[in-house]
Amino acid sequence: MGIAKAISRALILLAALSATVYANPKFTHLEGNPGLRSASALILDAEGAVIYGKDVDTVRPIASITKLMTAMVVLDSGVDLDEKITITRADRDMIRLTGSRLDFGATLSRRELILLAVMSSENRAAMALGRTYPGGMERFVEHMNRKARALGMGNSRFADPAGLKADNVSTAKDLARMVAAADAYPLITQASTTTRMEVRPYASRGPLTYGNTNRLLKNKNWDIELSKTGYIHEAGRCLVMQANIEGEDVSIVLLNSFGKLTPFGDSNRLRKWLLTNS
């Protein structure tokens, strides 16, 4: 998708989300229920019309979906994407105690850290992006919330760049706004749809290969333009996507699924429902 088209689409979706209209001019013969198992779900067409909504205004933890906001705030700042950043002990996950293959001393460009944070949900990469932001971590989180307000995400709050804290919260409706905005950033769409990436963070070691957390990218039935997964216990399994289903662009937000594969199953159930009714 070209930059101009992405920006235009984002503006259309953001404007449409100002009103909740459960109607869709393209999917006029939808019958039944897609049977989605996620606690909150919102499906929009390219014009922002609601195809399907379920508990769209409930505030929930969003886990690593947060990293889309992290990437946008970094890119908005205009900082040098080629600047080398070294992982330090300050980037450790002291909340969930998750591990990382980026050991202390690992050095990558800010661009590579964005790619790893978005595509592979690398927590230390996200934390390093916040730590090295002009003004430091506190200013970074402040700007995350400022960006949310600017996008009209009135029920969203951000507390850290990786989504490790349960205080990173939003609604399905707010996240549709965030996904629409993120779709206008070519580096984010590139990162979120790259299936594998090799980086060399150590001068004396071989490369590290990272994979995308969204298994649907390997499914030939899916044409995905942007995606992000997320998981912490409080949030359940989460997935947001921009995808093209048989020529129709749709936005998908799925929150709070308590099965590792449920968001992917819900996405396939949704796709089958749309195609059956088209």
CATH superfamily: DD-peptidase/beta-lactamase superfamily
Estimated structural class: alpha+beta
**What is the strand arrangement across the widest sheet?**
2-1-11-10-9
Mean pLDDT: 91
Shape: globular
Please tally the helical runs, counting DSSP H or I stretches of 4 or more residues. Answer: 8
Share of helix among residues? 25-40%
DSSP strand content: 15-25%
Could you say how many structural domains there are in total? 1
Helices and strands, in order, run as HEEEHEEHHHEHHEEEEEH
Radius of gyration: 18 Å
Question: What keyword list fits this structure?
Answer:
278 residues; alpha+beta; two-stranded antiparallel ribbon; 8 helices; 11 strands; globular
Task: Give structural notes.
It is a single chain. This protein has 278 residues and is of the alpha+beta class. It has one domain: 3-Layer(aba) Sandwich (Beta-lactamase). It contains 8 helices and 11 strands. The chain has a 5-stranded antiparallel sheet, sandwiched between helices. A two-stranded antiparallel sheet has the order 3-6. A two-stranded antiparallel sheet has the order 4-5.
